[in-house]
Amino acid sequence: MAAPDVYRTIGDLRAALKPARMAGERIAMVPTMGALHDGHLSLVERARDEADRVVVSIFVNPTQFAPHEDFDAYPRNEDRDLEQLKALSVEAAFIPSVREMYPHGFATGVTVGGPSEGLESAFRPHFFDGVALVVTKLLLAAMPDVAIFGEKDYQQLCVVRRMVRDLNVPTEIIGAPTVRESDGLAMSSRNVYLSPDERKTATSLPATLREVIERLERGDDAHDVLSQARRTLEDVGFKVDYLELRDGETLGPVTEDTQSRRILVAVWLGRTRLIDNMAV
Ligand SMILES: Nc1ncnc2c1ncn2[C@@H]1O[C@H](COP(=O)(O)OP(=O)(O)OP(=O)(O)O)[C@@H](O)[C@H]1O
Ligand SMILES: CC(C)(CO)[C@@H](O)C(=O)[O-]
Ligand code: BAL
């Protein structure tokens, strides 16, 4: 197994991918912020199935963090990440500096409406502008045929799909299922912030979502079910940012035309913010 080639500039990445593209190879990209776990690795495996060549980007993107958020504390471990990518025979890692992505004088933004409204945006108003901007730049840097995003960040996946459609970016976006710990907690780089006690409590989050789904499928009133689930979460110590049932395709409100519903949640446990979602 060879370690991935590491590219730190957009120019070097483009030059390296050019021969593969000219030879008609299919290129897949997996954008990440590093601190890789099995959730990320499942995206890489999916990318492997989809393409001849896999590029994983590792970039903790400052424009999606508000000044009071955890940009500085965000876990970073490039050597360990590269070891994991080596084990999966990933050919290329794109690890740009903040200066490379946002050179002095940078003055452009990307704003997506539709699915970015509400949910995360109500609590992290800057977030999707930062994600849409950096994903646009990453896709333009690698020009992949396909890019894989996790359903764990379901609203992000919907926003990226909308941005790619609206801007005619020639990349197919694939959503991959959420990988969970054995007790059901969605894997997330931020789980390392949890104390041992908080980690035990955290398992109530997916358990509560599963109860919500069971009750909705039994036909219980959605408003009652959500109010009770919110109280359950608060009783075990979560502070709830949102717990909402949405149309699974548009992320708008559930209407008569809704084909699939999705329950989405964001909570705080001490200083850690957790998000999760499940199809109903
Ligand atoms: N448990 C998971 N299952 C599937 N995909 C995941 C999982 N966790 C993250 N991803 C996906 O990996 C990609 C990179 O995510 P990111 O690097 O932010 O990791 P993260 O674990 O979500 O970190 P954070 O704690 O910042 O939310 C995103 O497309 C995200 O949806
Ligand atoms: C898509 C992404 C890599 C953009 O920085 C990030 O939001 C993430 O890791 O989910
Ligand atoms: N996984 C999404 C990146 C973020 O929450 O900042």
UniProtKB/TrEMBL annotation:
GO terms for molecular function: ATP binding; pantoate-beta-alanine ligase activity. The active site is at 40 (proton donor). Catalyzes the condensation of pantoate with beta-alanine in an ATP-dependent reaction via a pantoyl-adenylate intermediate. (R)-pantoate binds at residues 64, 156. Pathway: Cofactor biosynthesis; (R)-pantothenate biosynthesis; (R)-pantothenate from (R)-pantoate and beta-alanine: step 1/1. One of its GO terms (biological process) is pantothenate biosynthetic process. It catalyses: (R)-pantoate + beta-alanine + ATP = (R)-pantothenate + AMP + diphosphate + H(+). GO terms for cellular component: cytosol. NCBIfam families: cyt_tran_rel, panC. ATP binds at residues 33-40, 150-153, 179, 187-190. InterPro entries: Cyt_trans-like, Pantoate_ligase, Pantoate_ligase_C, Rossmann-like_a/b/a_fold. The reaction proceeds by a bi uni uni bi ping pong mechanism. Keywords: ATP-binding, Cytoplasm, Ligase, Nucleotide-binding, Pantothenate biosynthesis. It holds the Pfam family Pantoate_ligase. This is Pantothenate synthetase. Beta-alanine binds at residue 64. Homodimer.
